Amino acid sequence: MTTVHSYRLLLASLAVAVLHHLPVGNAFAPVSFSQQPIASTRLHSTNQSPDAPKTPEEDAALQWDLFTRYHAVNGEWWGTWTSYDYMGDVTDTTVAGVSLQPNKDYSSVAHSQRILASSTQSDCNTCFSSSEVRTMPIATYDETNLGKRHRCAAAGMVVGPSLLPKSGLMSTELSLRHGDGRVRVTFQHAPVWERGVEPGSCPPQGLKLFRATVSKEKLRPCTPDDVSDIEGQIQGPPTAEEERSAPAGTPLFFRPVPPFKWHAKWAGTSWTWGPQTGDRGWAIEEIDEADSWHGRPMGDSSSVWSLRLPGGVLIQCPRVVVGGVSGLCRLAWMPEDDGEEGTITDGNNAKLLRVEASVMALEPIISEDDEDMMVGFYPPTLGSLRCDMLEKVGELEGSTLEERELKAEGFSEYDEVSESAVTEKTETIKPMAENVSQSKSPPMDDKMKEKIKADPRNALDL
């Protein structure tokens, strides 16, 4: 048995702490992409500040509303599931669909996964002429059990963190929806022990990232249960060919997004949740540098694992989750760019979606009889959730990358101190010839000339 210090984790709302300086606005009602007959989401408001639902029943109704508006809709989410290891290398790819099918009155949703085992491509760019699809039932959700693993915030959703019973991995899934597209990433952390400690000889000392699976999904029509050799029934994942003729407002997964496009002025709304504060809506006029984590792909410290992927996707998570420390799992997505002049997209502004979940694990269970004895771990918990829905409103002006870096390191205002620091940091060494030409020697009088004539080494004094 292993002894540990007796302590308990404090659950705090990280999202609200970050946004305490932002102006508060009315909670935004999510746009309905489905045709379900459910009223718009509304939060209780006190002094213009949205507050948490007052009862567990109201909270469950709110979550069910968001879930059936953004994710459990008429159709299936088809994409290519790409798995990455700890080094960021691709280990596996699978074409599959996520089916979240509500019943007629939207009182329950059947969740299943449809794995494409084999297929033959037809002349259609998005269809398979013959397919073999394996359907795997997962669960059936309603208002009473959805909140056991799911938490929604506007267009964002987190599933977990939860322990997988067979493998013992901790799974945390983040999702963002925009139009008929969705990005979903699943982080899986496995138990690890310190160097020199025999694995299994004591409780795990941390949870290290084992695998990250990313899926860029498109909403497709529902397919029948038996799709073997049914021509044109499976449209499959999004393709570059169909995106070439996609209408304005459609997410584009097959496009390069240069790093500088992330650095802009973004404004919009934010939805935050914490176990103590509940759901809140915020109006964001501009994101400050400290909160612009989407512009720092490597994260804010060496403990962050990250990948930047084509199509404007950025993922970040803790390399190792340890007890007593919350870890941030993040997903940022730019589904649209600025519209090109002279095209049908002229006047369209770039979009940025972000979702951030704080997870905590390895909280020890202390014996009631002996405060110095640990008898197990509590299940992992969700500490906070935040989803931002932003639009580009302009370019950053009067601020270089060096200046913004200094601000992120702790300069709250760009004053004379930070200005001198930037000047010192960005100053370049002038050419040697230029330095020589600008230096001036003192004039030589007759006495100095005589000294140099007597001993030429006296010229070194000039």
UniProtKB/TrEMBL annotation:
Basic and acidic residues bias: start-end ranges: 443-462
Signal peptide span: 1-27
Residue ranges of domain DUF3598 in the record: 63-185
Region (Disordered): 221-250, 410-462
Cross-referenced InterPro entries: BFA1-like_DUF3598, Calycin
Keyword Cell wall biogenesis/degradation: no
Keywords: Signal
Pfam families xref list: DUF3598_N (PF12204)
Keyword field contains Signal: yes
Protein name: DUF3598 domain-containing protein
Highest classification ranks of the organism: Eukaryota, Sar, Stramenopiles, Ochrophyta, Bacillariophyta
